[in-house]
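REVIEWER CHECKLIST
Item 1: Sequence provided? yes
Item 2: Single chain? yes
Item 3: Sequence as submitted:
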Amino acid sequence: MLNCLEMQDQGSALALSGIQSALLFESPEEIYARVFREMKPRTPAPSIRVEFCRFANPDSFIRMETGAIHVRISDLLEGAPAPVSEALAYILLGKMLRRPVARMHTHRYRLYLNRRDVRRQVHLVRQIRGRKFVSGPQGSHYNLEAVFEELNREHFEGMLARPLLGWSRGASRSMLGHFDPSHNAIILSRIFDNPAVPRFVLEYVMFHEMLHLRYPVDHSGARRRVHTREFRQAEKAFARLKEAKEELKKL
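Item 4: Structure as written out by the authors:
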């Protein structure tokens, strides 16, 4: 025979199982409608359409249009577990409705994206679907290949394999440089391809992006650290680091 405590525990387990089962068999539209009602209990849930799209990244978008909610989600997330889809619903609806989102939802979503198998899938899809403009290393004033090889010899004993090198389409001041691991490319802003810009400033930005080759992004749980402690320590080896950063502020 079951005692009272055992019956209570069993009842709680069955209730929890029922909630999980309900969540498991909800359609995406039903998940978003339920979360909407929770966030705005006095407002009838509008018509909701959830569409999975062939994006190159795990991006998601939501908008209210003519009284209906339209959600567009990367098909990379189409097979995500129901609790992850629910977490994303809280995040997107919270953003649209300007409601606070519990940390557990953002943590669960980031934890899923940080899973090794998910990161591998995202990396492959970016390679297949993503379009990458790479102009080539020769600019009007500087040659990125020459800059890379000089820094490679000085700081990496010539051991870094040279990725694709190129200049951005425009002279961006917001994105000075970036390393794209999916396309193995370093792209620097054309703002540096100017005789008025000191060469050591260009060298510092290139050196910074080369360090991303040497020290990849660290994934731990739900955290994603782009600039690790080892990265920051290695960056100090650039002789004119402080001076370069001061020049960048002027740009």
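Item 5: Key structural point noted by reviewer: DSSP finds nine helices and eight strands in the chain.
Item 6: Recommendation: ____
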